[in-house]
Amino acid sequence: MTRSADATWRRAVQAVLGAPAVVVAVVVTLVVLPGLGAGPWLDPPEGFHAQIAHEMSRSGDWITLRLDGIRYFSKPPLPYWLMQVSFMVDGATPFAARLWPALAAVAAAALTARIGTMLGGPRLGLLAGLMTGMNLGVFVFARIVKPDMLLVFCITAAFSGFVAAYTTGRRWPLGVFYGALGLAVIAKDFLGALGPLMAVAAFLWWVGERSIRTWMPWWGIALFLVPWLPWYLAVETRNPGFLWFTVVDVHLLNFSGRRAFPDEDVPLRTLEFLAVTIVAFLPWSLAAPLGAMRALRRGAADRRASMWRFLACWALGVIAVFSLSRFKLPHYAFPAFPALALLAARAWDEAIERRRGVRALLTPPAVLFALLAVAVVAAIADVLPLTREAVASADVAARNATVQGRGLEHDALGMPLRAMPGLAAVLSVAALGLAVAAWRRAAAVGAVIVLCTTAAFLSVSGKGLEGFARARSATVIEEALLSRLGPDDVVVHEGPLENSASLLLRVGRHVPVVDGLRSNLAFGATFAEAGPLIWDRARLAEAWRTGRVFLISVVAPERSATRELQPVTLLATGAGRRLYTNLGHR
């Protein structure tokens, strides 16, 4: 390399390291956003959340959320407010609904880069931010309509404020800490704010920072309360019992597995939860334990060292708490991912800086990529089928369907076959490159290889997610229904409406529900206005005799109400759904 070329390269590296948060935001955007709206609604869960936002605009009520005209209280309104804003611009499309989780993931990655820069310098910040945005768990949840990425963003923003306040001694970043936690309450639930508050309080007590006035200023408490308290009080005033439901039933009783209004989600076992967490954070979960052990083992020589111990305790604490909980779903560990990314990035950064422990760091991802290459080749040859049990461990809807005895009628994750040979080649070359980098103790080269390979894998995973959405989509049922539906016909849904809620976006009318109260709508169904929409089998039988009815069922045929009805014609099947009608009535 010539002297001028070398100087140009150094200037480029310095420019990248000079603004790691900006670089991370750009890179993660390029990874997450392409093809964001290409796939249909992934149902569940996307149609369910999109329909709630859509009904908000039709009802004009931005306080009490509704689905199918039934009051909904399981999640607070911020995700639906944001979706409604994008729906005003782009309509109720998958892209408009998915935009906010994607932006939240990008922002969380950029904020993690900022935290890493404060604690360890630009290179560590750059690595940590990229690791936060480039793992399978965050990538998938950044591209589907769920509130979890908003929660991760809020918690990461809160910790960025706390780290700045603790390491610099300035008080104003506490406003970011308390304000972001207030947004976490209105974005997902109060537990999303309570956990970080308890973790920070325990840390401050441990390090001897016990001045309440310093760490809990009145204006900080006000910033925490303002985003969510007015809405909670307004909802309780309009809907008595809401606070008991959201505080006691959804959280306290859910933690012990004794809910009064359970939904259909089937929790993971502890080993399943841990396995899914490790896989979701690959390949960085291979280095995170090393970073955590180093953070906990070293003494707290200064405030930055204390912060590393805090981050390790937070990450391990989140995973431990949900491992002990009787109810846990695959994404419950996601709030720990930015902290895990910081710990993994620190291990990589130290290897780059000191050129020690490089082989121990590079060998696991080299082995991982080699095994993945073999797995991809086996999948191409159709000798390594993906079992239904494996899908069910990571996919809540598939797990629910398996436990309830109704298959979703597909096993594949929708990976495009044309991309598989290229992916196998990339993984093989990456494994070989990491082996060479380990031999040469070139940690920086290894980091670049792992990041580029992860980006390539996620690109193919994005195409796979599109195929997965098509396989799970209610499109087949929608088309069969809409081609026959008349203005006076009745449409009924059998089983929890969450499984087919995207149908409501196209049907444009309320749909009565039969045998569907093991659902997020169970508490809302206790209000009198839900009566006309909550049917029993006797009411369905009466409608079946007196008019033309279409029944969309997600219940296994041997348990379906159709066994008690005559006449019954099966019009269409798809992704665990069946469309029936009594064609004898006109």
Account of the 3D structure:
- By secondary structure, the protein is mainly alpha-helical.
- The protein has a domain at 475-581.
- The protein has 26 helices and eight strands.
- It has helices spanning 3-18, 20-32, 46-59, 78-90, 94-120, 122-133, 136-141, 148-168, 173-187, 191-206, 212-215, 218-225, 229-238, 242-256, 270-280, 288-297, 303-324, 337-354, 358-380, 388-394, 396-403, 420-440, 443-472, 475-482, 502-507, 537-546, and strands at residues 65-67, 70-72, 490-494, 513-514, 534-535, 549-553, 569-574, 577-581.
- Helix 2 (20-32) runs antiparallel to helix 5 (94-120).
- The chain is globular, with a radius of gyration of 25 Å.
Q: What percent of residues adopt helix (DSSP H or I)? A: 55-70%
Average pLDDT over all residues: 90
Strand content: 5-15%
| Main sheet properties | 6 strands, mixed
Question: What class, by secondary structure content?
Answer: mainly alpha
Low-pLDDT runs of 5+ residues are none
- What is the end-to-end distance? 81 Å
Helix tally? 26
Please tell me what the overall shape is.
globular
